[in-house]
């Protein structure tokens, strides 16, 4: 007779525990149709009459004894996005069997903005104070009532009251302001009705005070902006209508009406005073980043350039820099929108040049190059031409270390390694930064200048107290390769080496004799290209087959460092490292996760589960613990590189800001 698995027993235990917790006037049902979640709960009044309040429940149980680990739960991002779309809210419940406790979070409050962009999964954490207590049912009922009230309140169009506690230039201005608001609302087709009523159950209230503008919806969703006045402490009355509608757009976003919010923001921000606020632009970046709605940001830039305001060049530059930073652009903006965006910024560059604003044009060309250096639409030659154009317009760039380093990065990414190293050396001649030294060493490594690369790595380790794992592994590998081959300088013949390394590996692994005969032939390919990944991949398998697992592990590291997105190579390398109990195994796994994120863990777990007899259970358990530790480390110690962006400050000057960017490779 088949036995019930622990997973099924745990699932049943969590379901019964939840049923025992809920009040008698809550009714639990299995969703019909099946939404892929565990239960639907309907709440009745204690006299049995319906309240109309309902929610879904997703139960996840665990046997993990360590509570800090048990309160982590990994979801597919698509599952969370599906929950967001459901009409009923989803309560995610984590049952902790060792302590017989339940912890809860609302799914729609989980913010995917902080997830790794390329990952397919996201790990959430339950706070310890989210434990189900005696008062939890009452709090859930109150929350659901407020949510229902908010949804009912936002039936469109909304009614908006505008109140003033400020002295305008004339007594008639409030009337002219309301008239302009009506005009804009009609022209833009906005679901808003302005009323002059000051009392009653109004859906939204705008209040213009001497030092702030505040919008409130049902007093539960409030958005406030400060310091929008000019140097004389007065509001720009010509721009105030656009400020107010932009504020309403923010309120719409905070209450979930995001499409309407973005429409209002793109239509009204270009003519507002609000668009000049750096703090507001950071807020706008969080809105757009959370939705990855780069179409809105690009449309906003286009609309700014269509205005007749004199300061639009600087404003558009700042919107680009703060709202479409290189990190956002690389991880969230589709390729087709990158091209459209680049064309908008090129238009801005040329406009600034035409107006004689050389410094503004230089800033825009430089920012454009930084944003597009990884785009598939523009060649490295085109990107470098933008860097050079920026330097011609503002020669001070030539004295900045980051200018030369960023061009070095562009050249590295297009495999121009020796040229890349020369630009890194120019950067170092201006200012010696440890990470730039490491990047120069890396470029020299791939350029075949192995001995010189080791010299630069030595400089890096001398300057950097906490060297990056990738560089530690690379210098260890390089020392091994130079000792193994005796080659210190090489003109790499990559295509020829790859062709020679393309052997029938199954035939070579058919017997120990065949493997031993193949090894020296492959090793000889080092003379063509010491960094040939196919050669090292075949050697790794052959070394391991004939019992030289330590050499196989070293060869496996070489493959992983040459092909960091090769999940199969990382898995094999980790297995070999575990077999010999290598002291650098932790560093290998750490780097593998840094390069591939959650995709790596999913791949490893699938392989471990697919071949349970072939893989030691203790190793599988240790790997899971290691991955948990790496996740925690990355949550608080993300390795960061930066791009330097320049922000016009509106006073014929600029500020330099270092914007987070992903590591080059």
Provide a compact summary of the structure.
With 665 residues, this protein is of the alpha+beta class.
How would you describe this protein?
With 665 residues, this protein is α+β, with helices and mostly antiparallel strands. Among the domains are: 6-152, Trna Endonuclease, Chain: A, domain 1 (3-Layer(aba) Sandwich), CATH 3.40.1350.10; 154-274, Rossmann fold (3-Layer(aba) Sandwich); 469-636, Tetratricopeptide repeat domain (Serine Threonine Protein Phosphatase 5, Tetratricopeptide repeat, Alpha Horseshoe). It has 28 helices and 14 strands. Helix 10 (312-323) packs antiparallel against helix 12 and helix 15 (401-413) packs antiparallel against helix 16. It is flat, with a radius of gyration of 30 Å. Mean pLDDT is 85; it is low at 638-643 and 659-665.
Summarize the topology.
Blueprint: H1 6-21, E1 26-29, E2 39-44, E3 50-62, H2 67-70, E4 72-76, H3 77-85, E5 90-96, E6 101-106, E7 121-125, H4 136-153, E8 158-164, H5 173-188, E9 192-195, E10 204-208, E11 212-217, E12 221-226, H6 240-254, H7 258-268, H8 278-291, H9 294-306, H10 312-323, H11 326-332, H12 335-354, H13 358-372, H14 380-393, H15 401-413, H16 417-430, H17 434-446, H18 450-463, H19 469-485, H20 494-501, H21 505-508, H22 512-523, H23 533-545, H24 549-562, H25 567-579, H26 585-596, H27 598-610, H28 617-636, E13 641-648, E14 654-661
Parallel strand pairs: 3-5, 8-9, 8-10
Antiparallel strand pairs: 1-2, 2-3, 4-7, 5-6, 10-11, 11-12, 13-14
Helix pairs in contact: 5-6, 6-7, 7-9, 8-10, 9-10, 9-12, 10-12, 10-13, 12-13, 13-14, 14-15, 15-16, 16-17, 17-18, 18-19, 19-24, 20-23, 22-23, 23-24, 24-25, 25-26, 26-28
